[in-house]
Design a protein that fits this description.
HTH cro/C1-type domain-containing protein, Lambda_DNA-bd_dom_sf, 0% strand, mainly alpha, single chain, 434 Repressor (Amino-terminal Domain), Cro/C1-type_HTH, DNA binding
Length: 105
């Protein structure tokens, strides 16, 4: 099993946040952290994030929590999304793959 790198996790956080039309400050406020923490995570410094924040982030960003800890995930979760969310996530995943798994975020 191939795990995602911290940089790849940061890319996922950033793209999912952008898909939700949230600023770093807005996501930080919803999670009870500073915008600087969100910026840090998005830049690939994702170590030692508290479990409750990971859980809340997954809910806010509507992503599988396994992605936020670096575990690869099957795309079956796309079936659970609304049509608009599914199209956005499919576009995100396609872009992610085209960039070589998050090369330059």
């Amino acid at each position: 099993m191939e795990y995602l790198s911290d940089k790849e996790i940061g890319y996922i956080i950033k793209r999912a946040r952008m898909l939700r039309n949230l600023t770093q400050a807005e996501l930080g406020e919803r999670l009870g952290v500073q915008a600087a923490a969100v910026q840090k995570w998005e830049s690939g410094k994702v170590t030692n994030i508290k479990r409750n924040i990971l859980r809340d982030m997954a809910v806010e960003l509507r992503v599988n929590p396994a992605l936020l800890i670096g575990l690869p995930v099957q795309t079956d979760f796309l079936k659970q999304l609304s049509k608009t969310e599914r199209i956005g996530m499919e576009n995100f995943l396609r872009e992610y793959q085209e960039k070589g798994r998050g090369g330059d975020a």
